[in-house]
Write a structure and sequence with these properties.
Structural class: alpha+beta
Radius of gyration: 32 Å
Largest sheet: 7 strands, antiparallel
Strand order of the largest sheet: 2-1-4-5-6-7-3
Distance between the termini: 130 Å
Low-confidence stretches: 38-47
Number of helices: 8
Helix content: 40-55%
Order of helices and strands: HHEEHEEEEEHHEEHEHEEEEH
Strand content: 25-35%
Shape: elongated
């Protein structure tokens, strides 16, 4: 009986001890927890990191503004990855002359950051690269360059080209001014073929090209490296546009009929 009473007393003592310990911890620790009013700081950081617009300038293509969220998110995602992969260094003005792309990013809070992309990526006063992660810079260049791949920008590239040549059925030469105007108008009004199934069907038809057209940014051959060239392969009811400065060799398909243009050049050659 005494043993049972002692066990009950011991159990009660343990319960009291645990209760006292819990009360003590609650008073010493949890009662000291306060609310940090950092709502403004959190919103400020979100504003600092949320882009709302980007202005991009390309050496050969000119300038454009990016406002859509998808393109801005892709751009900033590349920037974040570059900042993680590369060790930041204070930038110098030496890379400015080699920058293929440059521009400015504007954030929700109104702040702006300038950037340049060439062999290195510069954001504000910090420069990243080059190094073993160079493909990351190339991927960013491709992503930004692809924003120019629209019928309107292709037409503008051709409009500002100093020389445009054609080649069809063994005949080659340069386009005249009014023919250049016709080409610019046709490309500018063309519709891009984006459906991969439709593109595959076009390729399976294995049509023979009617010819090709090349736009040169400069009028002297020595100055025309591949970044100055836009090549157009002409088919009966569509064309394939390829910017030769694209390291990934991307091609764009447009619904544009240039058969009349090349047919006219061939007809004149036959008369001669």
């Amino acid at each position: 009986m005494k043993k049972l009473i002692w066990s009950a007393f011991l159990f009660t003592g343990i319960i009291l001890l645990l209760s006292f310990t819990g009360f003590f911890l609650n008073e010493q620790v949890y009662q000291k927890v306060g609310i940090i009013n950092d709502k403004h700081e959190v919103l400020q950081k979100v504003s600092d990191s949320l882009p709302v617009q980007a202005t991009i300038s390309h050496q050969k293509w000119g300038s454009l503004q990016v406002n859509d969220e998808v393109s801005l998110h892709a751009f900033v995602s590349y920037v974040d990855r570059i900042k993680q992969e590369y060790e930041p260094k204070l930038s110098t003005d030496q890379g400015s002359e080699q920058a293929i792309l440059s521009g400015r990013i504007q954030y929700l809070n109104g702040s702006k950051q300038t950037f340049e992309l060439g062999s290195t990526f510069t954001l504000g006063k910090w420069s990243y690269g080059p190094g073993h992660e160079a493909p990351l810079l190339s991927a960013l260049q491709t992503q930004l360059q692809s924003l120019y791949y629209t019928p309107e920008h292709f037409a503008q590239f051709i409009r500002t080209a100093k020389r445009i040549t054609f080649r069809s059925d063994g005949v080659q030469g340069s386009l005249l001014d009014h023919e250049k105007g016709y080409l610019v108008s046709s490309i500018g009004q063309a519709l891009e073929i984006k459906d991969l199934v439709e593109i595959k069907q076009l390729l399976l038809r294995k049509q023979k090209p009617l010819g090709s057209i090349t736009a040169y940014k400069e009028d002297k051959k020595l100055k025309n490296d591949r970044s100055n060239l836009l090549h157009i392969v002409v088919y009966s009811d569509y064309v394939v546009m390829k910017y030769m400065g694209d390291d990934n060799g991307n091609s764009i398909y447009l619904q544009a009929g240039l058969e009349k243009l090349l047919h006219g050049k061939n007809a004149k050659a036959d008369i001669r």
